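hey can u check if this looks right to u? its 821 residues, i copy pasted from the old doc so theres a chance i mangled smth
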Amino acid sequence: MLLAMVLACNAAPSFEASLDRGTIGAGETATLSLIFKDCSPQGQPNLPSVPGLQFSGGGFSQQTSFINGQTSTSATFSYEVQAAQPGDFTIPSVVAQTDQGVLRCPPVHLRVVRGNVPQNPGVPETAFVRIVSATNIIYVGQTIPVDLECYCQDNVGNLQMPQISADGFIVGNLPSQPNKSRARIGNTIYNLLNFRLAVTATRAGTLALGPATWSLTVYDGPRTFFGWAGGHQGNFTSDAPAMTVLPLPPGAPSDFRGAIGNFSLGQFEAGPTTVGVGDPITLKVRIAGEGSFDTVTLPAEELGWREFKTYPPTSKFESSDPLQLQGSKYFEQIITPLNAQITQIPAFSFSFFEPSSGNYRTLSHPAIPLSVHPTAATPQPTVIASGAPPTDAQQQNQDVVHIKPFPGKIRPESPPLVQQPLFLALQVVAPLLWLLALTWRRQKERLASNPRLRRKREVARLVQEGLGNLSRFAAANDVEKFYSTILRLLQEQLGERLDLPAPAITVANVEDVKGLDPATLASIRELFHACDQYRFTPEHTAQELASLIPKVKSALATLQNVRDKENNSTRRPVIEQGVSLLLLAMATAVSTRADTVSDAFTQANKSYEEGHFAQAAAAYNNLLDHGSISPAIYFNAGNAWFKAGQIGRAIYCYRRAEELSPRDPDIAANLRIVRAQAGTNPASLPGNRWTRWIGGLTLNEWTICASGSVGLFFLFLAARQISPAFNRSAGGITLTLAMMSLWLMACLGMSINQQLVEKSSIVIVPEAVVRRGPMDESQSAFTAHDGTELSIVGSDGDWLQVSGASRQIGWLPKKDVALIP
């Protein structure tokens, strides 16, 4: 067992070799590192002889780290490698003797290119440029990274961006900020500016990549306190390396659409898989890997099976690679089954050409089982509007889901729950109940540990009961019970005050009570004497007995030092009745309003069915302007605006409908269609998977979930204070509720940020000029077309500062956009 623990705490020894750069120029140097991990070398390793390469140096460093309870050691020998001539070199395996035995490292490869490095190391050039590609054999349509390396000494200035031209290639944009470093070539130290760009071959053959040119000022005078003296403009041109561009081989699969790279099928799923005829199903496809993702497409006809109705697929690309050559491309496809005989979603396949192997490959996924049940309604959820469109409509390329026949639940325009004072006030109810339960619990524990306090409360209860019995005994003229009750009450109260047994209290103990005024003392003595003398004069009338009751009450009240408290409990029913009446009045008003809205909604639907789309849109907007809000009204208004050719207003209405009903598949489908029509699919607004998941619930829904979880958490805390048995058994539930409450509160915070903090707008004019300043005379920054969605950064009077998809910021008038509140 001890040996196993030792072996587990120490990693297996290893011996590795690596180069800091895989490609260098002739005359340059690269660093070769021989790394020993978790072992100790027995002396310096012997490097093999490689023709064309020179090794120098041999520095040594050692490092020890302690991670997750494990100790790791590393010893490194560093060498400088220099090549005089271009070519591809292999540094063979190096064999080394260590304390763990003989180890061998794998070979490493080094590519040396010529470029236009100075041929005479004794006369170094001031600056030069070269083009370095990862390979010189590629295929038509293949995209590869290419480095444009610009070298210069310190006596230069006014550096310009290099330029590259290449016939037969598509050259990507140069990055504005190159990678900067220092490099030694021969005995000269150069500043290296490395511009990495993407290059795509467009035709086959042996083609020259380049040349590249670079302009800068070369200072040839002495350097003084004020800077360099004298200089001239220098233009430097690189060599153009030859590239062998091969055509794609024959025998491509039938579904090959030009995708070139190395890809994998990360996701292919559909949901829901139990639906009715005409219900929407969402297909999700993710293709990941490396290559030209512009060629990765999912044409609609590939998913257009005869037994399904399809919508155009949407796509999104995510990558952290500046050249966009690595990442994942997401596709979504909406389909609806046309009959109940369908049992599966057909198998999926995607073909691409892999340059590394020179072969075509096909990614596939088996068919997905599907259960379709018949429905009595129309078998398709999308209905193409019949009849020729009138003059106020434009012909659309794709139909949208048909309008809703009923307005749905009408709600007045109101702020979200998190901004309503009444709702915020209700959030203190559960914590208040917990505080009351906690106070009650502590009071109970206090009584249990304080006998005097417990006796005081018991005596107060006895006094209350005894005073109630005195009136009954006086009315019955029961003299014996009347006076014995008075005596008992006086003894109990005085015994509690003096901390003496009640039977031992006599009239003499009255003098021991501190703080009583003479009149009260005299009254208490008189009551004691009356209790002693009733035996000698047992005849008393009921009126005589009743006349003593006020004196008894006054004496006992003084002893108790009781302060009456105002009872506010009677106000609660009045408040509850007022709230109930208010809710009933609101419900009646909403019901009456719904009848009026239903008539106007039906008239607007009639105008839509007749093809008067602009008129229908105006009718729907009239309802919205008068505070009649529902997802169906916004949805139908979006349809009408889309049919009338107002793409931006349609997107605005669909987004408002989506805020009210984020899980409606018809709203999601129409929004995708209209965004595709506007050329902004997906939306050009910031967001990720997490924010889209948060958008699956409305702000009010997140508020209710978080409020309910927090309230339940405090109610469980209150229950644990009241019931000891529940306190012992509900610890795990309370912890779960606490974690759930924190998670829901975090989700609520993100939803608040999305809905109330991050504002957006949609362009509603054919073309909006976004300017660099909030004035009509300001220079144009960019142009946004109808339907473009823009983030709002700030405002100034009638101008809005907005940000576009490319993160450009500018100003446009408020009248050109519709604001998402």
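The longest helix spans residues 571-609.
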